[in-house]
Amino acid sequence: MAGITTIEAVANAGPFAPTWESLAHNQAPSWFADAKFGIFTHWGLYTVPEYRNEWYSRNMYIQGYPEFDHHRATYGPQNEFGYKDFIPMFRAEAFDADEWVSLFARAGARYIMPVSEHHDGFQMYRSALSHWNSVEMGPRRDVLGELRAAATRAGLHFCTSNHRAEHWWFMGHGREFDSDVREPMSRGDFYWPAMPEPNEFDTVSEPAPTAEYLEDWLLRVAEVIDNYEPELLYFDWWIQHRAFAPYLKTLAAYYYNRAAERGAQAAICYKYDALAWGAGIVDVERGGFADPTPFVWQTDTAIARNSWCYTDSLDYKTLPELVVALIDAVSNNGNLLLNVGPRADGSIADHDRALLEGIGDWLAANGAGIYGSRPWHIAHEGPTQQASGMFADQAPSAWTAADWRFTTKDGALYCFCLAPAGTRELVCASLAAFDGTHQPVFNGIVSAVEQLGAGPVPFRREPDGLHIQPADRHEPLQNLPIGFKITVG
């Protein structure tokens, strides 16, 4: 395991240095812009109670919160049954890494992103830094290692996320009353350091993370980098606190230089300006950009609106909504990282599985216009305005047959009608014919139209748009967007 001296030496050894000027020259892995679709998994100790969301470990210690009352009614007072007491219940008896990865590949994903450590501080991998990990406790399995091996066997890119930064304050409310968080603790202990909670977006809050905590954070992430060699590393939001800045630069240089030693590429996915522009891949949580960007980016979102982990009260999105989210991101030069939360035993619930398989069926027919594509000079048309920015997915949009998204690849144009169900003739206004007066948006030649997954279909260009008569589709595709390949010239 690399120590602080080794980490600093590697970070300064090149080709990258721990400065934003140097790190801004890192390039995203070449496969990333072509992959378009990955699977995120939030699975850990917080899944055991299957209650509300993945912040159970924090909320069960906040008096007046539903988790606080639920915990007392179900498991007993927090000084008798604390969060750590869920560990023996987390057995993962149904966990099969190959089965997970097979399902993710069936869904059409090209990369996977399991969480290595969430805010709760329970590591889902073998660690020399803390005994509170899935190898020494609970499942007694190296979950991250098994998923990496399974992804390699399946030909999927292996990535991971780390949410350790927020642990500085995540268990802090447990000090406010008689709970097990008030027990003596030191570095390496499960709840340590359990500090007072700041405003989560305050980059200058006090007490700021100490050098001891930040070194521990650096060592933990470097351990994941060295032992599991992720192709992408994702951080949640709180690393933008100013105390992390020098450690984050060191970590990024270490990660990028380690990848260079192997002749590989790597990149950090980040939010809220935690990295200097260009030093990693911009991630937009539960949202995206309104228009095509000159840089490739990623949105991470979940199959449910109200939780990232499995619970008994998930507000699921619909299959059409998820497919549109993928198309919309890709048309704007983004990737979709879609989260699914397995159950505590390691199984994936039937409805979650059905959604993933539905996406896979759609991509099997329409993937030619998704994988490896790039934005066209027009990204979208239609009356429905998609919300942009963070957390824009909290209410579904009502798409119509007049709403379209566009991509391009290998000289062809791909057009996706977002809500074609029940419409016998679709009209794409951006491909309208010359009306004798005004130059059309597309002034080229349409020589053929092919419905993806169905073959050539009748079309004609009129001054109001390209009229397409789609082929009949059967379940499971008939209520989903339709993609068309437009051959031009």
Automatic annotation (TrEMBL):
Instruction: Name a Pfam family for this protein.
Output: Alpha_L_fucos
**One GO MF term, please?**
alpha-L-fucosidase activity
Role description: Alpha-L-fucosidase is responsible for hydrolyzing the alpha-1,6-linked fucose joined to the reducing-end N-acetylglucosamine of the carbohydrate moieties of glycoproteins.
Q: Which species does this protein come from?
A: Bifidobacterium pseudolongum subsp. globosum
InterPro entries given in the database record: FUC_metazoa-typ, GH, Glyco_hydro_29, Glyco_hydro_29_N, Glyco_hydro_b
EC number(s) reported in the record: 3.2.1.51
Lineage at the top is: Bacteria, Bacillati, Actinomycetota, Actinomycetes, Bifidobacteriales
SUPFAM superfamilies given in the database record: (Trans)glycosidases
**Entry protein name:** alpha-L-fucosidase
A GO CC term? lysosome
One of this protein's GO BP terms? fucose metabolic process
Glycoside hydrolase family 29 N-terminal domain: from which residue to which, for each copy? 8-367
Family of the protein in this entry:
Belongs to the glycosyl hydrolase 29 family.
Q: Keywords, A to Z?
A: Glycosidase, Hydrolase, Signal
